[in-house]
Amino acid sequence: MEQFDWKNLPFGYIKTDFNIRCKFKDGKWGELEVSDSEYIDIHIAATGLHYGQEAFEGMKAYMGKDGKIRVFRWGENAKRLISSAEGVKMAPVPVELFKEAVFRAVYLNKRFVPPFGSGASLYIRPLLYGSGAEVGVKPASEYTFIVFVTPVGPYFKGGIKPVNMMICRDVDRAAPLGTGTFKVGGNYAASLRAIVKAKDEGYGSTIFLDAREKKYIDECGPANFFGIKDNCYITPKSESILNSITNMSLIEIAQSIGMKTERRRIPVEELSTFEEAGACGTAAVISPINKIVDPDVNKIYEYCKDGKPGAATLKLYNKLVGIQNGDVADEFGWMTEVE
Ligand code: PLP
Ligand code: COI
Asked: Please, which residues have CB within 8 angstroms of residue 306's CB and are 6 or more apart in sequence?
């Protein structure tokens, strides 16, 4: 097999052996199919192409120190895909079907799970789209569910190396009563102008503010935001952000190590009071934030001394990654072994 440089894998696509597919037709889901093709045949009038009837998930499988492969909190991703499907009027994927497809995809590609200690993992991408043809704006009557996997390294270059972020005031990723809480492709399309601008200007990503008032922190490109002060983990409450499973987990981890936690609105000015800040998500894991630049109002908020993450961020990171790698006891019951 190909020899990968596991320690230097980018967050990108690498072909693996198999993917899993399933179709919804005549009001019901069919059988799972295994495919070795990277391509799909798609109707030219599929609603997924025209009207954004599409949702996806992002999750990971890890090789443990004990040589066992484990998936992190798959049940939460299954629930979120159901919520996203309902958000854009698609046929939801039943939890058991989701589980079977995900675990089969990992099992059939187990030679691609990066080794313990490499800092890389197997990214799992479940995808659901309207594959039935419609020309009027209405939900399709046919859907396709696919799960593919690909080995990945850290999303933000450098792993736990702090990143710089730029506040975005001229693009909204999602509206308060829009689709921001669903993991649908349209939100990512809407975020691209801001993300490309931030990258072009040398930042890791962009920080979106609430669309209604531009007063509060929403999220960090494809990750949630957190700030830390006075031994308290603080993360935004917002009606337009994705409810990150990593963030939910960090709240529990923070409490387990004696930190207080708050989920509430975070005014932009409060950035100056945080001792540490970070972005969190499946892809981002925890990416500590070095500085946040708000160019429109000429402000810079700095968090890292000598380019190093703060102590609380490191503690949270070590416990989260330790549980995922099977190196720290899974006291919350988050990991499911792939057998
Ligand atoms: N916010 C957005 C917009 C995302 O795309 C993601 C990634 O899934 C997250 C937050 C983090 O969510 P999770 O921790 O469930 O991966
Ligand atoms: C994830 O963290 O899984 C994401 O979906 C982020 C991004 C690659 C879309």
From this structure: none
Residue 305 pLDDT > 70? yes
Q: Does 178 contact ligand 2 (Cβ within 6 A)? A: no
The answer, yes or no, to whether residue 86 has pLDDT greater than 90, is yes
Residue 6 has pLDDT above 80, yes or no: yes
Tell me which H or E stretch contains 155: none
Pocket perturbation via mutation, ligand 2, pick of 56, 59, 128, 155 by most ligand atoms within 8 A of CB: 155
Q: Whose CA is nearest to atom 2 of ligand 1?
A: 222
How far, in Å, from the CA of 245 to the mean position of ligand 1?
7
Given a contact cutoff of 8 angstroms between Cβ atoms, the answer to whether 292 and 145 are in contact is: no
Residue with the nearest Cα to atom 9 of ligand 1?
223
pLDDT above 60: residue 1 = no
Angle between helices 74-87 and 95-108 (to 10 degrees): 120
* H/E run at residue 228: strand 224-229
- Which one of 205, 206, 282, 286 would you pick to mutate in the ligand 2 pocket, going by the greatest count of ligand atoms within 8 A of its CB? 282
163-168 and 205-209: which strand pairing?
parallel
The residue whose C-alpha atom lies closest to atom 5 belonging to ligand 2 is: 58
Global pTM value:
0.97
Measured CA angle at 62 (ends 122, 82), to 5 deg: 70
Torsions phi, psi for 200 (to 5 deg):
-60, -30
**99 and 76 Cβ atoms separated by less than 8 Å:** no
Instruction: Locate the ligand 1 atom nearest the alpha carbon of residue 248 and give its number.
Output: 14
CB atoms within 10 A of CB 142: 18
Cα separations in angstroms, 226 against 135, 138, 212, 321? 42, 38, 21, 17
Partners of 129 in the β-ladder: 54, 144
- pLDDT of 158 higher than 90: no
Gap between the Cα atoms of 232 and 260, Å rounded: 4
CB of 55 shorter than 6 A to ligand 2 = no
Radius of gyration in angstroms for the set of CA atoms belonging to the chain, rounded to a whole number: 20
